[in-house]
Structures are given as structure tokens and as C-alpha cells.
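wait is this the right file?? whatever heres the structure
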């Protein structure tokens, strides 16, 4: 109970507390939140709609999960993010339960703490996106599969609940969730494969049938169909071929086979994601992948358990590396496997007969931790977000001093761990170091990025300072979805979008407006300003230049704005 309470309280402080203190971030969060609002307003609970059109991007469960708190607590940032945050806490408890059943309580607690303090995990726990839900459902599906395989107690129920989690994962992310589970289980089955039995023309079918019975495949398929088929059938009946073409083929097959919307990457793309998004624990991973299979010559249940998490890591990594479309948050389902593999290193460290490779592994982890911190130094703070979810810079806070201190303290901890083994104080101190990193970024860094990540401040200023409710707001440049979200509910003809190639059209529109506000990309302002001057001859004044890439300008100066402050 103490372990459970610690995970709930510690996780809630990182993921839930303060999750509503900053605006929804572009590009994904506003889309999901606005989709939920539109579905509620139109009384639509089967088909997701965004800006009046069907949103084929994801299946329905993420919208259902967000709809419950947003219906109760309102259309706030906290309510939109609450499903991800609560799921993240539940994911820690699930992983603790699974690893405790497979190994022991200490290893289970260590694995949960490692997972919960990975930057990519706590970052996406505070985002209104489906990836955290998917990851937690995969923990339930794969974890209960492993428990059912290795623990005879309540095997049937573990496996059947595992199939229910697979169904929820499919309803959250689509068929790719099923592909992940099949890939991991298939790779794990290699260690179970006995050619003389499974390929024998007489014994093979009997062995296959025994495996189907053991893993409850037939009841599992029934559970999958009962939970997933109703929504897919309803969508097909409503939209027919368009649903198959866009939701199934385009969003799954084409995303995997070809890059969508220029989301590309090389083979090394996800290596950086692991080392930058899962520090400091990722430093233990290279040695862990090699050494957790120590003793491979004698295949035992202990070795099979370790191989299961290696298969989890390899299958997810290879699947998304082969995929044409690459995004950093796609790799979040690998985080639980990394956490368990790192926890197994600490499990070996706690043994009385500690394996020879453990001390070198701890020292090597220092070198691998230097990789992301080196990149923070050389490439700037963009690395911090590039390998979580959004390619944006940290513009208003210097995180480097904190990361340098983190490296120093971590180095001291690893050196002490090589000198003193089986110390609960040292193991606990490493968790506290990673937890302090989480506190810093969740409660210090992320809230300060509000101005850079969202148009909310500009829209709120426009709403509160416009002279007339009929005054227009125009957006010039690359589309920012938070603008539409925070303008949602206003008159449909109030917000106007103009691409970078349409400065003349915007200038012609602004010519007859007594008052208009324009959110404009900074680097394209001069071109737009020239067109505005040509068509209207009015002076233009900036309202705010807080955002590093966008300005808010207007043609109606007030007392607090001076002509000398014009962006020109």
C-alpha cells in the first residue's frame, strides 16, 4: 500500500497538478479539444468532427475519454488534459503490478519510478493527446499477457483482461496498436519456438492448438470483436467507402508506407528520441540490452521474462523505424520496456552475488547521459522539445545550468553505486534526482512556454480590447490551430485565415475595416506591411511581440501604444 500511495501521490503531483495552468499547445492539443466541443454541441458521439468536417485521424476512444471531464468541469485546459494525466498515474500502477508479479516488489517499484520520471512520459502525460492512453493500454495488454504466461494464478483472467486492453488500444490509435502487440508477442515467441515440435507434421498442429488454448486466443478474439466492432461498423454504415479510404487506408497503411506531411527521418531518428526523451535512465539501456540475457545458454523462465521486455523494446523500435511517417511521440510505447530493462540492472545490483557487468553498466550510463546534455550545449535547447513531441525552441528560459548540475549529481550517484551495492539509499537517491528533473520541467519550464506554444494570449487580448464585438481577427502565415480553438464560439465570420502567399488579399480585406487585429508571422511582416500601406495608408501598431515567431498588430492605436512602437 505504501508503494501504491507513493506512486499515486508522486505521479499526481507531476502529471495532474498544474496541468491546466498553461494554454493548449499547437499543433495537436487544440484539435482534440475542439473536436470534443464540436461533438458535444452537435450531439454526435460516434463520428469525430473538426471545423465541421469529419476528423479521420484517430478512432473514437480519446474523444470519449476527454468528453467526460470536459462535460463535467467545462472546456478548460485541465479537463482536456485530465485523461492523459490520470492514465499516466494508472500506467505506473499497472507496471508496478506486472513487474512485481514477474520479479519482485522492489523491481516493480523501481520500474514504475523509472517510467514515471522519463521526460517523454511526464511531458505527454500533460498533453491532450491519445499517445499516453495508448501506452497505458499497451502496458495493460502486454503486461497482463506476460503475467498470464509466467504466473499460473488467475491466468485466464489476466489474459482476458489483456485482450480487453488490446481492444481499448485499437479504439485509441487504430489497427497499429494491434500490430504492435502482434509484433512483440511474435518476437517473444521465438524463444518458445521448438522446430522439432512446431514444424513436425503430426505434433505441430497439436502444439499450435495447445498454444491457442493456453493463451485464450478464441475468447480473446471474441472480446476484441465485442469491444471494437460496434464503433467500426457504425462508422462504416455512416460513411461507407470514405471511412475505409481515409480512416483505415490513409491513416494507417499510407502513414506506415510513406511519409505524411513531411514527417520523415533517417534510421537514427529514434535513437536520439530515446536518449533525449528518456534520460537519465536511457544511459543504462545499451548495457542492459546485452546483459539482461546473461546466461542465455540455459533457457529458463527467468531468461524468458527478460527476453519478453527485450522483444517489447525491439519490436516497437523496429516497427516505427521502418514506418515512413516518423514523429517523436510515436515511440512512447517503448518507454515501459526501457523502464523495466533499466530496473533489471538495479535488480542485479541488489543481488548478493551481483553479476560482473553491473558496475561497468553504471559507469557507462554516465557517458550515455552526456549525449543529450552535449546536444543541449551544442545545438541549443531545441533538443529538449524536438525529441518529445513538438519541434519548437525554448526561448525564454535557460535550462542548461540545471542540466549540468543534474549530470554532476547523477555522476556522483553512479560512482557511489559502483562502490556500495545493495544500498536502498543510493537507489532511492537516483529516483529522487530524476524526480527533481521532472518537477523542474513540469512546474517551471513547461508553464513558461505558454507564450511560445499557443496563440491563446493574443486571442484573449483581442477579445478583451477590441472596440466592437464585430471587429475582425486575421491570421497571416502558417496555420496555428490554437487560434481557432480559442476563437471557437465567436461569430463564424470573425476569424479569417490568409496564407503566406496572400498578403494582397489580406490588405484588401483590411482596407475597409475600422478596426482589425492581425496575428502575423514575424518573418513575413515586412511583405504584409508593404501591402497594407499600399491599400490603406494607415499606421499599424504592434500590440505584443511576446511570441518569438508571431506578432499581434492592429490599425487602432490606444493610449498605451505609441506610434514609435510600430513593428516597421
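ok assuming it is, sequence goes like this
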Amino acid at each position: 500500500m505504501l508503494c501504491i500511495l507513493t506512486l499515486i501521490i508522486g505521479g499526481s503531483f507531476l502529471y495532474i497538478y498544474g496541468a491546466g495552468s498553461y494554454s493548449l499547445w499547437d499543433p495537436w492539443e487544440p484539435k482534440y479539444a475542439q473536436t470534443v466541443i464540436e461533438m458535444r454541441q452537435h450531439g454526435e458521439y460516434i463520428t469525430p468532427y473538426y471545423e465541421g468536417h469529419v476528423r479521420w485521424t484517430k478512432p473514437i476512444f480519446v474523444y470519449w475519454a476527454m468528453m467526460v471531464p470536459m462535460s463535467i468541469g467545462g472546456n478548460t485546459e485541465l479537463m482536456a488534459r485530465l485523461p492523459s494525466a490520470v492514465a499516466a498515474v494508472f500506467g505506473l500502477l499497472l507496471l508496478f503490478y506486472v513487474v512485481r508479479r514477474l520479479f519482485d516488489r522492489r523491481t516493480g517499484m523501481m520500474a514504475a519510478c523509472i517510467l514515471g520520471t522519463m521526460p517523454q512520459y511526464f511531458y505527454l502525460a500533460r498533453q491532450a493527446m491519445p499517445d499516453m492512453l495508448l501506452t497505458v493500454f499497451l502496458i495493460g495488454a502486454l503486461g497482463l499477457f506476460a503475467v498470464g504466461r509466467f504466473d499460473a494464478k488467475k491466468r485466464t483472467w489476466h489474459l482476458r483482461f489483456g485482450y480487453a486492453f488490446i481492444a481499448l488500444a485499437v479504439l485509441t490509435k487504430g489497427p497499429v496498436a494491434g500490430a504492435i502487440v502482434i509484433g512483440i508477442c511474435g518476437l517473444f515467441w521465438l524463444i518458445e519456438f521448438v522446430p522439432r515440435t512446431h514444424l513436425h507434421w503430426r505434433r505441430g498442429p497439436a502444439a499450435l492448438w495447445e498454444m491457442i488454448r493456453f493463451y485464450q486466443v478464441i475468447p480473446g478474439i471474441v472480446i476484441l470483436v465485442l469491444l471494437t466492432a460496434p464503433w467500426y461498423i457504425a462508422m462504416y454504415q455512416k460513411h461507407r467507402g470514405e471511412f475505409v479510404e481515409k480512416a483505415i487506408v490513409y491513416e494507417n497503411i499510407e502513414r506506415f508506407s510513406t511519409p505524411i506531411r513531411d514527417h520523415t527521418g533517417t534510421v537514427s531518428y529514434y535513437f536520439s528520441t530515446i536518449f533525449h526523451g528518456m534520460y537519465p535512465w536511457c544511459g543504462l539501456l545499451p548495457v542492459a540490452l546485452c546483459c539482461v540475457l546473461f546466461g542465455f545458454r540455459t533457457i529458463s523462465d527467468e531468461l524468458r521474462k527478460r527476453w519478453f521486455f527485450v522483444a517489447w523494446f525491439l519490436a516497437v523500435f523496429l516497427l516505427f523505424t521502418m514506418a515512413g511517417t516518423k514523429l517523436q511521440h510515436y515511440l512512447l510505447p517503448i518507454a515501459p520496456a526501457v523502464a523495466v530493462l533499466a530496473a533489471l540492472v538495479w535488480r542485479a545490483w541488489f543481488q548478493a552475488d551481483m553479476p560482473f557487468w553491473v558496475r561497468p553498466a553504471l559507469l557507462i550510463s554516465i557517458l550515455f547521459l552526456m549525449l543529450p546534455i552535449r546536444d543541449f550545449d551544442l545545438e541549443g535547447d531545441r533538443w529538449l522539445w524536438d525529441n518529445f513531441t513538438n519541434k519548437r525552441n525554448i526561448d525564454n528560459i535557460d535550462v542548461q545550468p540545471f542540466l549540468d548540475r543534474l549530470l554532476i549529481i547523477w555522476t556522483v550517484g553512479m560512482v557511489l553505486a559502483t562502490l556500495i551495492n545493495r544500498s536502498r539509499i543510493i537507489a532511492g537517491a537516483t529516483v529522487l534526482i530524476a524526480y527533481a528533473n521532472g518537477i523542474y520541467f513540469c512546474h517551471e519550464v513547461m508553464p513558461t512556454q505558454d507564450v511560445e506554444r499557443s496563440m491563446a494570449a493574443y486571442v484573449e487580448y483581442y477579445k478583451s480590447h477590441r472596440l466592437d464585438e464585430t471587429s475582425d481577427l486575421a491570421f497571416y502565415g502558417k496555420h496555428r490551430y490554437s487560434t481557432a480553438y480559442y476563437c471557437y464560439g465567436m461569430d463564424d465570420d470573425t476569424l479569417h485565415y490568409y496564407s503566406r502567399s496572400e498578403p494582397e488579399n489580406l490588405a484588401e480585406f483590411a482596407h475597409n475595416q475600422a478596426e482589425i487585429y492581425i496575428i502575423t508571422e514575424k518573418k513575413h511582416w515586412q511583405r504584409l506591411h508593404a501591402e497594407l500601406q499600399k491599400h490603406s495608408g494607415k499606421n499599424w501598431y504592434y500590440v505584443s511581440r511576446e511570441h518569438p515567431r508571431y506578432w499581434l498588430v492592429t490599425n487602432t492605436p490606444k493610449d498605451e501604444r505609441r506610434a514609435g512602437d510600430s513593428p516597421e
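The first helix runs from residue 2 to 15. so i think its the right one actually
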